[in-house]
Amino acid sequence: MSQDDGIRIVLEQEGPYAFKVNFEGTALEALHTDEPAPLGGGGGPNPSAMLLTAIANCLSASLLFALRKYKNAPAPIRAEIVGHKARNAEGRLRIPHADVTIRLADKAADLEHFDRVLAQFEQFCVVTQSVREGVSVDVKIVDADGAVHVPGAAAA
Fold this sequence. Notes:
Helix content is 23%, strand content 28%. It starts with 8 loop residues before the first strand and ends in a 7-residue tail after the last strand. With 156 residues, the protein is of the alpha+beta class. The relative contact order is 0.14. The protein has helices spanning 47-69, 114-120, 126-131; strands at 9-13, 19-23, 31-33, 78-87, 93-103, 136-142, 148-149. The strands form 2 sheets. The protein has a 4-stranded mixed β-sheet, with helices on one face. Strands 1-2-3 form a 3-stranded antiparallel β-sheet, with no helix packed on it. It folds into 2 domains: 1-45; 55-149, K homology (KH) domain (GMP Synthetase, Chain A, domain 3).
């Protein structure tokens, strides 16, 4: 599949709010989604969880890409995202903000060109950059020492 073919995902309803999600053109197994009770049966992640998963996963993969670009061999990382729901002017629930924390198993000081990685990795993330106009996403990186690094912040 070329870039111009787009990303094709087909959803088939399986229950009141449950869907089977097929990733067309791939060998991936179907994913099953559902809304939590009282709407659905909670048989899978709901769209809000999928959105947050996509943001955190994309940022994590982009960070790994940027680290490896500078010949680092990072240990496995761990990411956590928390979406904050709020009602818009029409009273509809939205997720206008998300907090992402990516934890490194490595010390930032042991990683080559970490300052450059921090300055650019978010630009590699297709998902986060695509949704940022509608969803504010704050990102912080926490290394093995517990030091917090904020992309775009001046180094101390």
